[in-house]
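Issue: ligand-bound run for iron/sulfur cluster - logging full I/O for the record.

Environment: standard queue, default settings, no custom constraints.

Inputs:
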Amino acid sequence: MIDPFGRAITYLRVSVTDRCDLRCVYCMSEDMTFLPKMEILSLEEIDRLCGAFIRLGTNKIRITGGEPLVRRDVMSLFRSLGGRIGGLPNQGLDELTVTTNGTQLARYATDLFAAGVRRVNVSLDTLDPARFTAMTRWGKIEKTLDGIFAARAAGLAIRINAVAMKGVNEHEFDDMIAWCGEHGFDLCLIETMPLGDVDGDRTDQYLPLSVVRSRLRQTWTLEETPYQTGGPARYFTVAQTGRRIGFITPMTHNFCESCNRVRLTCTGTLYMCLGQDDQADFRAILRAGASDDELGAAILAAIAHKPLGHDFVIDRRSEKPALARHMSVTGG
Ligand code: SAM
Ligand code: SF4
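Outputs:
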């Protein structure tokens, strides 16, 4: 699958639910209305669509949400997709991964490993229990920490994702680098993106990671590395800990030129870009009884409309998000 700008599209992110057991302040409003079940693809429908993408050259799938591990029976999807790892070029997955808030990991870590998952991204924005509860509106840090350590014990490599928020967790990053170093985790800092209404003013929360990086350099030696995971993060090695730190900077640095991914929502909408509205409805196609060939043709037609990139701007006067949909719809 090659898009109109010559980029090979090999990475599919799949949001399996819009629901979540937390309400992170930058991601959701407190009072969210979730989609009715009818509108959500069944796990079998998601699996079939993933199979169609794999036949067209997708070699990496990340399962996300909402919180993917709160979807009932989600392990059956992991097992089925895990069975597609390996095989001949263009016929199987190289990697199956998941992004999770970690609350259910203590329960599922061993099953994920058994299904073929080898790396997980776990969101943890702070190491302070009270701040964790404030940032997630009601979460308990112990549950996420238990999940993280269960994942490590199960043999999964862990990347901690932290959204950088001005005046909230910005003074914790030194501690988080040290903590990740001590436990053998990579760390990835993410700029807040203006997606969806969250009952707050994002212009107050936005913190450019270029500022964070120069601050971190006063304490840590950050060595350039060519390491890539196929995602948008730019990585450095922290010389003192030997672990990696990544920066995802959609606001200060446009990473679109090397974009290799598209996003499927739990309702079967394929978004060609996280920051644009270009989309295709695969639920209608699936439920109209499309054959595998018709599915493949619809995927190729959608990829032919992938836009060049996004241009997030926070409108300071209206304080409206750049896009109405929340991150929990497209899964980040
Ligand atoms: N619930 C899972 C989790 O929290 O990891 C998976 C879905 S969550 C939407 C995926 C990632 O998006 C998380 O790392 C989260 O911190 C990040 N995220 C959510 N809203 C964001 C926003 N407005 N700007 C930047 N990152 C955001
Ligand atoms: Fe839930 Fe993840 Fe969004 Fe937090 S970032 S509210 S854990 S979907």
